[in-house]
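Lab notes, practical 5.
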Amino acid sequence: MCAARSKAFRAIILGAPASGKGTISSRIVRDFKLKHLSSGDLLRSQMSAKTDVGLMAKEFMNKGSLVPDDVMSTLIINELALLKQHSWLLDGFPRTLKQAETLHQQEHTDVVISLDVPEDEIVQRVAGRWTHISSGRVYNTEFNPPKVPGIDDVTGEKLIQRDDDKPEAVRKRLQTYEANIKPILDYYHHHGVLQLFKGRFTNEIWPKVHEFLSEKIPPKAN
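Output from the prediction step:
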C-alpha cells in the first residue's frame, strides 16, 4: 500500500539510445501523476520565451556548438523552478557529471531510474531500422517491417539504412554514452537515489518500474 504524499515527487530517467526510455517515460506519465519534462522541450521553451539563458543557448546552437554545461544547467533549473508544486519526470538531463552535481544542489530528486539493456539488444534494434527518406517513415525489420522488404509501403520507393543506424555506428554511440553515464550513475548511487532496471525488452522492464513507483506514489485511478 502506498503512503499518501503531499509533497511533489521528482524522478529522473536515464537510458542509452534505443533503450526504450521514451516508451517507459510515456507509460510512467500515463499511469502516474508526473509531468514529463524533456530536456529538448525545456530548451525550446526557454529559447521561444527569449530568456537570457535561452538566447545564450540559441547562440551556441546557431554556431553548431554544444550548449555548455553551465548554460544548460541554468536553463533546466529555471524551468524546474516554475514547477515547484508539481511532480515531474525529467528525461534527457543530466548528460554530464557536472550537470548532475548542479541539478542536485538546486533540486531534490527522489529517484533516478536507469534502464540497463544489453548492448547486443540495442544494436539489433537499431540495425533493424530502415527509413524512407522523403517522408521520414521509419520501419523496423523486427517490430514494424514493411510489407515488402526494403520497400516503402506507401510509395513503393526503396528504403535506406542510415549510416547512424549501422551496427558499428551504434556501438560507437553506446561506448560514448557509457563513458559519460558511468560517473553520473556512480554519483546518484552515492546519494542513494539510483534505481537500476535490467532487461532485454521494454515489456520485461516496465512491470518492474511500475511496481517500484507504485510503492512510492499512488498510481492514477483507472
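Observations recorded by the TA: The beta strands are 10-15, 35-38, 88-91, 111-116, 129-132, 137-140, 194-198. The longest strand covers residues 10-15.
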